[in-house]
User: Which sequence fits this backbone?
């Protein structure tokens, strides 16, 4: 049997990242980037496989045994998540499994690709001896060009590669895939290498679908983001030598006529729960409206969740989005305080009637999930309370509450390093739900104050009688019961268990 050229690996750190929520409540999302990179390698004539250790609930030892059995030339750890910031927290599982694999099979070359390693390529290679190579950006061309070598010679000619030659060597950057080449270089996700039955969506996403969380699929219809919010690291893929720069705002998308093939596949498989993982789906009307029209034309019936900015929603879009199956729009509201929002470069939000936009969306039968951040640099207790009050007032069908993090690759990370703010000591500390969660302090508050407020706000929102009445009216008693059951899972927080810091 011929040797597998490359095995793409999604590690399993769900327990460390989500604590007890991992057992039933956290989503298990398909590794989109692993699937796209596998398709790219096949296009280039290489054999590829995927091991999703999280979806298969494998321990590091079990996963390492599977990798050894596959015996690839390269074991590529794809350290991405379904949102840009998830890369850093997923390093927790990737490093543990990489070390286990290196101890068991030193001859297998280990490559890392993902947002975290793109942001901190040199640091990752210096810190982790088990890693042989890293990709400095999104990694598409770097991976296939590395496979053209014997993994020993002419490595200096592989653009975008980080490797060792006595010390760490970072080759010149590799270009990202241009929009015109997306259908050829990244033609789709290698679904045949994944077990779709293993994936489940978030609890709230399933409510319009009778609370059935499986089957579930996710995909990108576009890559990148034209915005430059200081707390986000999505634009790190275009950085040059400055590890803490904000990169370039690049937005690329597949033509609707190409991407509709993925939706046709989902429909044929009986998959209705769909997440469009684009950072901003409702942005370019020539893209998303055409895609929605194609879905409607085919008569597909989906339960779709996607993302929009508050200031990109237009009345003329909403009927089409709903008819295409968009039942959830996730909005980055971030803060209820204009001063706080402006400080993190969220654009023209001070001119947008947030309440009016939310009501308009819901008036078209689309549910809203509001995303809020506590602990942005200008936050104090009063502004955080304003954010919670706004969330409670609008009482959307779901709300995510985050504490501000300095994700590697974001402008905020550069500020945190410059100011000497405490950063997570473990990769799991970049998770919003882990024991080691380490948010940023603000100009006025300590990190533990921010995290305590976030946790209390989440519980208050999800046990609010007004919210529970909304769930029962729209989705039935099962939605209420499951929501309340999830609130009984208590997250332990290391910084909240430590002795209080004198202030």
Assistant:
């Amino acid at each position: 049997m011929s040797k597998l050229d490359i095995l793409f690996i999604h590690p399993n750190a769900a327990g460390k990242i989500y604590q007890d929520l991992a057992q039933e409540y956290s989503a298990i999302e398909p590794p989109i980037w692993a699937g796209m990179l596998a398709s790219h390698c096949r296009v280039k004539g290489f054999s590829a496989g995927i091991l999703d250790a999280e979806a298969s609930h494998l321990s590091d030892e079990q996963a390492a045994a599977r990798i050894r059995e596959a015996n690839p030339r390269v074991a590529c750890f794809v350290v991405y998540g379904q949102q840009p910031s998830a890369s850093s927290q997923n390093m927790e599982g990737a490093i543990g499994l990489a070390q286990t694999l290196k101890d068991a099979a030193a001859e297998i070359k280990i490559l890392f690709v993902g947002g975290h390693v793109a942001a901190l390529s040199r640091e990752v290679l210096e810190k982790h001896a088990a890693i042989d190579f890293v990709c400095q950006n999104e990694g598409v061309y770097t991976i296939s060009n590395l496979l053209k070598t014997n993994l020993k010679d002419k490595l200096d000619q592989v653009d975008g590669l980080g490797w060792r030659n006595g010390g760490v060597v970072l080759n010149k950057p590799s270009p990202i895939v241009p929009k015109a080449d997306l259908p050829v270089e990244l033609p789709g996700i290698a679904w045949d290498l994944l077990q779709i039955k293993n994936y489940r969506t978030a609890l709230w996403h399933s409510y319009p679908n009778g609370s059935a969380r499986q089957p579930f699929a996710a995909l990108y219809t576009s890559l990148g983001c034209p915005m430059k919010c200081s707390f986000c690291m999505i634009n790190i893929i275009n950085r040059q030598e400055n590890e803490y720069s904000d990169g370039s705002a690049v937005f690329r998308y597949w033509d609707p006529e190409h991407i509709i093939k993925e939706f046709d596949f989902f429909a044929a498989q009986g998959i209705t729960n769909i997440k469009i993982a684009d950072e901003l789906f409702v942005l370019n009307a020539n893209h998303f409206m055409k895609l929605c029209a194609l879905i409607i034309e085919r008569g597909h019936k989906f339960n779709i969740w996607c993302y929009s900015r508050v200031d990109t929603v237009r009345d003329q879009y909403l009927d089409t989005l709903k008819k295409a199956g968009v039942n959830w729009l996730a909005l980055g509201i971030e803060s209820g305080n204009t001063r706080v929002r402006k400080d993190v470069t969220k654009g023209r939000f001070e001119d947008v009637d947030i309440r009016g936009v939310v009501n308009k969306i819901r008036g078209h039968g689309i549910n809203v999930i509001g995303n809020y951040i506590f602990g942005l640099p200008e936050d104090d207790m009063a502004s955080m309370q304003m954010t919670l009050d706004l969330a409670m007032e609008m009482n959307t069908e779901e709300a995510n509450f985050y504490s501000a993090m300095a994700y590697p690759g974001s402008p905020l990370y550069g500020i945190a390093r410059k100011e000497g703010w405490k950063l997570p000591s473990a990769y799991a500390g970049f998770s919003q739900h882990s024991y080691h969660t380490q948010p940023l302090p603000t100009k006025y508050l300590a990190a533990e104050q921010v995290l305590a407020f976030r946790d209390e706000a989440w519980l208050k929102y999800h046990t609010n009688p007004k919210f529970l009445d909304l769930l029962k009216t729209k989705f039935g008693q099962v939605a209420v019961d499951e929501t309340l059951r999830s609130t009984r899972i208590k997250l332990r927080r290391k910084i909240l268990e430590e002795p209080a810091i004198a202030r």
Q: What stands out?
A: Confidence is low (pLDDT under 50) at residues 238-248. The chain is about 40% helix and 15% strand. The radius of gyration is 22 Å.
